[in-house]
Design a protein that fits this description.
single chain, alpha+beta, five-stranded antiparallel β-sheet
Length: 306
C-alpha cells in the first residue's frame, strides 16, 4: 500500500547513493492522516506490501473490498489501482516497496503464472502470532541494517559489499513473505513450462515498453513466435488476451495520473506517448467509457465528498 502520491509523505529512499532497489519506511499516525478517502494508494510500477500493526484500513481493488486489520498483510502488484476507502484514527503499519526489476526474477524462480495471478486477485492474508512475530523480527533487522549503513562514511568497496548484502537480505525477506502467503493460501505447486516463460517475458517487456509499444505483434516478435500463437498462450495462461494486458497497463497509469497528479491531460498524453491529446482521449474513452476530463472531474468530486 505504498501510495502513488508519495510526495505527500515525503518518501525517503534508503541507500539512494548506492541505488538501493527498494524503499522501506514506517507508516506513522501523522502520515496516515495525509491520506484521503478515495485516493489511490498503490504505486503503478512497483510491488510491495502493507503490514498492519494497529487499527483498521479498508481498501478496494477493482471494486472488490478488503478489510485490513492488525496482523494482516496486504500484498499489492504493479499496475493495479488500490483505493483507500477508510482508515481508523489509530491505524499504523509498515510498508515495503520493491522495484519490478528486483522482485520479478525472485518471484519467477519459485511460483508460476497461475499462482502470481491468484496473488493479484487475493492480496490479503492474516498472519498467525508466530508469523507476525517473525515478520516483525525480519523488518526490524532489515531496517536496522539499512539505517546503520546509510549513515556511515565508507569506501567504495564497502559500499558495494553493503549493497550486495542488503540485496541478499531483501531477497530472503521476499521469500519469507511468499512463504507466509502460501502457508495461509495453500496451493498445489505447478511446474514452470515454456508457456509460463513466454508469459513472464511478455510481462517484463510490457512493464518496460508499454508507453511506446502497444502492438501485440511487437511483443510476439520479441519471442520469435507468431502473434496468433502468442495471443493464444497469453490468454491460456492468464485469462486475458495480450491486447487486454496492454490496454490495462496504459489505462491504469492514465487513471493514476488523472487522479494523483497535477499534469494536464495533454501532458499525460505526451507521457504515455500518444501522438495527440485527441488520440489519447479517444483511446481512453474507448476502454473506460468516459473522457479523461470527465474521469478526473468524477474522481475529484468523490475525493471532496461532493
Amino acid at each position: 500500500l505504498v501510495g502513488s502520491e508519495m510526495c505527500i509523505r515525503d518518501r525517503y529512499r534508503l541507500m539512494d547513493r548506492q541505488q538501493m532497489p527498494f524503499l522501506f519506511r514506517f507508516l506513522s499516525d501523522s502520515e496516515l492522516y495525509a491520506f484521503k478517502d478515495g485516493q489511490i494508494i498503490s504505486t503503478f510500477n512497483k510491488c510491495g506490501f502493507f503490514f498492519c500493526r494497529r487499527g483498521n484500513v479498508e481498501v478496494s481493488l477493482e471494486d472488490k473490498l478488503f478489510q485490513i486489520k492488525p496482523g494482516d498483510v496486504y500484498i499489492y502488484m504493479a499496475s493495479t489501482l488500490v483505493h483507500l476507502l477508510h482508515k481508523s484514527e489509530d491505524a499504523e503499519g509498515i510498508m515495503v516497496e520493491v522495484d519490478l526489476d528486483y522482485i520479478i526474477p525472485i518471484v519467477n524462480r519459485v511460483i508460476n503464472v497461475e499462482n502470481q495471478l491468484f496473488m493479484r486477485k487475493h492480496p490479503c492474508i492474516s498472519l498467525s502470532d508466530k508469523q507476525r512475530a517473525h515478520l516483525e523480527y525480519l523488518l526490524d533487522n532489515l531496517q536496522e541494517r539499512i539505517g546503520a549503513e546509510d549513515v556511515l562514511e565508507v569506501n567504495l568497496q564497502q559500499q558495494r559489499l553493503t549493497l550486495e548484502l542488503i540485496k541478499s537480505m531483501g531477497q530472503t525477506f521476499c521469500y519469507e513473505i511468499l512463504n507466509m502467503y502460501f502457508a495461509n493460501q495453500p496451493m498445489q505447486p505447478l511446474p514452470q513450462n515454456k508457456k509460463d516463460v513466454i508469459f513472464q517475458n511478455f510481462m517484463l517487456a510490457l512493464f518496460r515498453l508499454y508507453r511506446k509499444e502497444r502492438d501485440v505483434a511487437y511483443y510476439a516478435k520479441m519471442q520469435h513466435i507468431t502473434p496468433r500463437y502468442f495471443s493464444t498462450i497469453i490468454k491460456e495462461k492468464s485469462g486475458n488476451s495480450a491486447l487486454q494486458w496492454i490496454v490495462q497497463m496504459v489505462i491504469t497509469e492514465a487513471k493514476q495520473l488523472l487522479e494523483g497528479s497535477d499534469l494536464s491531460i495533454k501532458e499525460i498524453a505526451n507521457q504515455l506517448n500518444f501522438p495527440t491529446q485527441s488520440f489519447f482521449g479517444k483511446y481512453f474513452k474507448q476502454y473506460v467509457g468516459i473522457s479523461p476530463k470527465e474521469y478526473r472531474k468524477g474522481k475529484l468530486r468523490i475525493r471532496n465528498g461532493i
